Amino acid sequence: MRIAVTYDNGMIFQHFGRTTEFKVYDVQDGAIVNEQVIDTNGRGHGALAGVLLEAQADVLICGGIGMGAQMALRDAGIKLYPGVQGSADAAAKAFVEGQLDYDPDAHCDHHEHHTGGCGHHQCH
């Protein structure tokens, strides 16, 4: 299994569509056996589903995410765990242990109406 996490300086980046990096974790026999950071090469929003497909991700852990990106991930067969904050490494470890705290209803639907990262207002 391969887990991808939106990534910025060790933390889960809170706006999926603007993430510039993913940290990817390979899991075998219930343990993380490899990790690497991959660059999105300037791609954003819906195109990021393609980045995750190329990276062969099975799971995405992120903060806020728009409905279009959610649909693109679903269509790509990538399981989504949104609404997560904090350390990327801790989230990946919690996922592997079956203890990830996430919000299946987290979304971001007002990208044009604020500056800064998601995690503000209705973006969780």
Taking Cα atoms only, what radius of gyration do you get, to the nearest Å?
Answer: 13 Å
CATH topology: Nucleotidyltransferase, domain 5
Work out the strand percent: 25-35%
Specify the helix fraction band.
Answer: 10-25%
Coarse morphology: globular
User: What is the CATH first-level class name?
Assistant: Alpha Beta
Give the helix/strand layout:
Blueprint: E1 2-8, E2 11-12, E3 21-28, E4 31-39, H1 47-54, E5 59-61, H2 67-76, E6 79-81, H3 88-96
Parallel strand pairs: 1-5, 5-6
Antiparallel strand pairs: 1-2, 1-3, 3-4
How would you explain this protein's 3D organization?
This protein is α/β, with parallel strands linked by helices and 124 residues long. The two termini are 26 Å apart. It is globular. The C terminus is likely disordered. The chain contains 3 helices and 6 strands. Strands 1, 2, 3, 4, 5 and 6 form a 6-stranded mixed beta sheet that branches. The longest helix has 10 residues. The protein has one domain: Nucleotidyltransferase, domain 5.
Write a concise keyword list for the protein shown above:
alpha/beta, six-stranded mixed β-sheet, disordered C terminus, single chain, 124 residues, 6 strands, globular, Nucleotidyltransferase, domain 5
